[in-house]
Amino acid sequence: MTQDELKQAVAQAAADYVAEHAPAGAIIGVGTGSTANFFIDALAALKDRYQGAVASSEATRKRLESHGIAVLDLNDVDCIPIYVDGADEVDAGLNMIKGGGGALTREKIVAAVATTFVCIADGSKLVDTMGKFPLPVEVIPMARAHVARELAKLGGTPVLREGFVTDNGNLILDVRGLAITDPKGLEAQINQIVGVVTNGLFALRPANVLLLGTETGVRRIG
Ligand SMILES: O=C[C@H](O)[C@H](O)[C@H](O)COP(=O)(O)O
């Protein structure tokens, strides 16, 4: 199977999960990226059953609207039973690195409101220890150099994502070389640096369910 076929399979499995677990009239949280895009396409078949969706990026909002799915402002929403999103890396504890597409902050906000986070990923994303994928850190522009120096003190090598501005008008530093032995501790530590909006570690709020696309079918963990 191609990687896209694996992504499509987990996206459909996530739509089936939503159909089974989210009550009619609910609002569904929707992530960002190529795997989430396949989920949006699968969710379109269920759109009459739900009130609408909350989007974790402008790209996702546009794709949802192109399918005629209503997109709500998170500030008008009390409860999101299920949030479905991809990941750049995920470990057996369902901790993740996210933000390869730069949407980490809005993703973290929607995930914070959601009751259940369903991570969808092809098998290549499951790792023993996270950190091969450079950790994205969203930074207020005027703090870029300060944050880069602080990240270097933690053992990382930050590189500015050239020509990229987040949906929030900020910059991304992609950080290689961090030892992620304590994902929760490192997530909190990086978020303490003045000028950091958030970082792409999702360990303080990990996924609840992982749907992993493999050659032998979709494997569910959690
Ligand atoms: O900012 C982007 C998101 O965190 C994505 O969920 C992540 O990068 C995975 O994307 P993809 O499904 O395209 O591999």
TrEMBL record:
<keyword id="KW-0413">Isomerase</keyword>
<dbReference type="Pfam" id="PF06026">
    <property type="entry name" value="Rib_5-P_isom_A"/>
</dbReference>
<protein>
    <recommendedName>
        <fullName>Ribose-5-phosphate isomerase A</fullName>
        <ecNumber>5.3.1.6</ecNumber>
    </recommendedName>
</protein>
<comment type="pathway">
    <text>Carbohydrate degradation; pentose phosphate pathway; D-ribose 5-phosphate from D-ribulose 5-phosphate (non-oxidative stage): step 1/1.</text>
</comment>
<feature type="active site" description="Proton acceptor">
    <location>
        <position position="107"/>
    </location>
</feature>
<comment type="subunit">
    <text>Homodimer.</text>
</comment>
<dbReference type="GO" id="GO:0006014">
    <property type="term" value="P:D-ribose metabolic process"/>
</dbReference>
<dbReference type="GO" id="GO:0009052">
    <property type="term" value="P:pentose-phosphate shunt, non-oxidative branch"/>
</dbReference>
<comment type="function">
    <text>Catalyzes the reversible conversion of ribose-5-phosphate to ribulose 5-phosphate.</text>
</comment>
<dbReference type="InterPro" id="IPR020672">
    <property type="entry name" value="Ribose5P_isomerase_typA_subgr"/>
</dbReference>
<comment type="similarity">
    <text>Belongs to the ribose 5-phosphate isomerase family.</text>
</comment>
<feature type="binding site">
    <location>
        <position position="125"/>
    </location>
    <ligand>
        <name>substrate</name>
    </ligand>
</feature>
<dbReference type="InterPro" id="IPR037171">
    <property type="entry name" value="NagB/RpiA_transferase-like"/>
</dbReference>
<dbReference type="InterPro" id="IPR004788">
    <property type="entry name" value="Ribose5P_isomerase_type_A"/>
</dbReference>
<dbReference type="GO" id="GO:0004751">
    <property type="term" value="F:ribose-5-phosphate isomerase activity"/>
</dbReference>
<feature type="binding site">
    <location>
        <begin position="32"/>
        <end position="35"/>
    </location>
    <ligand>
        <name>substrate</name>
    </ligand>
</feature>
<feature type="binding site">
    <location>
        <begin position="85"/>
        <end position="88"/>
    </location>
    <ligand>
        <name>substrate</name>
    </ligand>
</feature>
<feature type="binding site">
    <location>
        <begin position="98"/>
        <end position="101"/>
    </location>
    <ligand>
        <name>substrate</name>
    </ligand>
</feature>
<dbReference type="GO" id="GO:0005829">
    <property type="term" value="C:cytosol"/>
</dbReference>
